[in-house]
Amino acid sequence: MATRDSKSPDLERSLALLWSGRAGGRRGPRPKLSVEQIAQAAIRVADADGLEALSMQRIAAELGYSTMSLYNHIPSKDLLLEVAADIGAGQPPEIDGTADFRDAVRQWVAALWAGFQTRPWILRVPIDHSPIGPNQLAWLDRLLRPLLAAGLAGGQARAAAMHLTAVVRGTAQISVDLAKSHQTSAAELGRLLDEVIDERAYPALVAVHAAEAVETAETAEHEGHGLPVELDFGVNRFLDGVEAWVASHGKGRSSGAM
């Protein structure tokens, strides 16, 4: 049977593993080893030592089973990573009681960002298809609610949600990579660059560095819902765009080209 190790993802197998144990009503004794137990062990390894340390052999040793026993439940490491990433993502924040759609979206972004900072290894798990796992779908559903409430139609809300998810994920990936490559803060990096950058050759960059020194201090005093500087401005402009689109095209209009 094909797996994600083949040229195309096996969506049926992914779906079965991601939703393993979710269906009720199954009678008989519970198996000694389950997909969720294996995935939880993988999460513990990744949390402690990173994705590089994750292997079927390491997980088998953690659980006290043979490697072949794991493969009987999850036939490849790629599929294991997919399940572990979905479970590791956890549940999205409860934002249904938030009246303003902008606040709701910002809370969602802040929670997703915090999750990536807590478990950065999730950012390195390959994405072969649209979200189909229970937690992935829960995060998507939770973001769609305020976007629909704001007036976007179905297709528009989905496109906006996927775009915002990609922005947060991409920004988090850059943040994690920079943190790994050096321990220099953004402020310190700016100071070092200011010492070598020629204002005549890079006038815009010099102007931005000078402005950021002031903006960073001001923004830190009133970051809404914990959004970092890297996301705060972009998310607000995204929300401005949603409001402008709804205002100019009418709330509840059927989806079309965006």
From TrEMBL:
The keyword ATP-binding does not apply. Residues 32-92 form the HTH tetR-type domain. InterPro entries: Homeodomain-like_sf (IPR009057), HTH-type_TetR-like_transc_reg (IPR050109), HTH_TetR (IPR001647), Repressor_TetR_C (IPR004111), Tet_transcr_reg_TetR-rel_C_sf (IPR036271). Residues 55-74 bind DNA. PROSITE patterns: HTH_TETR_2. The keyword Kinase does not apply. PANTHER family: HTH-TYPE TRANSCRIPTIONAL REGULATOR RUTR (PTHR30055), TRANSCRIPTIONAL REGULATORY PROTEIN (PTHR30055:SF151). This is AcrR family transcriptional regulator. It comes from Amycolatopsis magusensis.
